[in-house]
Amino acid sequence: MTDRTPERTPQRLPQSAVARPLVPALIFIALVVAAVGSLGTPLITSVATSFHVSLDSAQWTLTVALLSGAVATPVLGRLGSGPHRRAAILATLAVVVVGSALTVLPLPFAGLLVGRAAQGVGLGLTALMMGVARDHLPEERGTATIALISVVSIIGAGVGYPLTALLAELGGVRAAYGFGLFVTAAALLTAWRFVPAAPEGRSAHLSVPGALVLAGGLFLVLFLAGQRSLWGRHLAVAVALAVVAVLLLCVWAVCELRSETPLVDVRAVRHPAVAGANFAMFVGGGGMYLLLTLITRYAQTPHGAGYGFGLTTFVAGLVLVPFSVMGFLAGRLTPRLRTRVDAPLLLAGSAVIVGGGFVLFATARSNLAELLVAMGVLGFGVGGFSAAMPGVILAVTPRSETSSAMSFNYVVRSVGYSLGSAMGGLVLAAGTDPGHLFPDDRAYTTAALVGMAAMAVTALTAAALARRSPTGTEESAATAAGPQQDRSSR
Q1: In Å, how far are 139, 269, 292, 313, 416 from 146, measured between CA atoms?
Q2: Do domains 18-200 and 266-490 have the same CATH topology?
Q3: pTM above 0.70?
Q4: Could you read off the pLDDT of 41-64 as tens digits, one per residue?
Q5: Element (H, E) at 219
Q6: How far is the C-alpha of 323 from the C-alpha of 373, rounded, in Å?
Q7: Which of 216, 439, 481, 488 is deepest in the core (most CB within 10 A)?
Q8: Domain 266-490 belongs to what topology?
């Protein structure tokens, strides 16, 4: 084993004028990349009209961003664990700015897709923001900041949705994407001014073959999750692609176990706490995104279907405001509760709250106020769940592996979201009578029951983690010993 330079103790910034700007800077960057990554959601109809393409084709303005984000996340997570984290952050934001410019320029539809793919790369920066906070902030403030970063990475969609929808109605789709260019340029300047360099003594080697194999597997998984028509019209092709995806991911896992410089530390992922947390994120993320999809789709369904409220894109975006507000509130409260309640129990409680949102939606959706309440409950549950998740994973993760560990968790979340959206689409499609454009109202209740089951599994998984959770002293010892264990394992 070759000798390595001992990792120096990360510089902890004092509670001073130097430290204060870092927290809002990290939260702002995480919020921007989340909001810009979700820009395609409210603009699908406008894109289809402006570029004279089908709605299925316009849907790719969202899908391609999610795909590029899922592929870039583990790569950026590994780069963020090394000495060039600041350079990786700035380069990624530069790519996002260039992509945002492409969405504004008068290019054909293919150019718009390229721009959206470049914007989606920014979704991989969330874990790097957490790594910066853990390295350069005092422990208590760092923990609270990481929780907020996790929350804003989800509620960012609710922040950007109504504004971009309004801009699209007033100035067209280019004006809406122009908002993305403005805020991403501001995020790049913020990162250049306030994000510090990583602590000295770290190294991170990127396995290009491993990254390519993982990218191929993730691409197929997310592609199949978003292409419901492929399963109905070409089942054999879909099954074949699914088999290829599973084989690629299995090959990647075996190669990672044998590699001295893995893209993701698979051995650490197998830790009961990390594995359980990722499983809870996968199932719970699918359930959470399912309810978000159900409520927004129900609100926009025209009255002629026998239900729904026929809201415009902008007004439907306002329905997400309670989601964002309550999610942010939960993100602020969770770190305080963490001093009294174990993170796995907070996960379980948050899953139960989201389950309560499903119950409200299933039993009371006759007026818009009831939908707003359900959306607020969902936001509070999602905010608490997102804020508690890093505490479960980072309690047993070396400080130097923060970005890599959390990036894997966000890949799991992306896959869960995609499958949750696909499951909702399948249930609603099954509840649509032949010759009808919209599903029967009862299909929404059926989909809500599926979501309740998902959140019950999530809550039970988190409760099981709580029974295995070490005491706070043991957690601190494990975290403190992490870097030494990390070096010896290499």
Answers
A1: 10, 20, 24, 32, 21
A2: yes
A3: yes
A4: 667 777 888 898 876 678 788 778
A5: helix 208-226
A6: 9
A7: 439
A8: Growth Hormone; Chain: A; (1.20.1250)
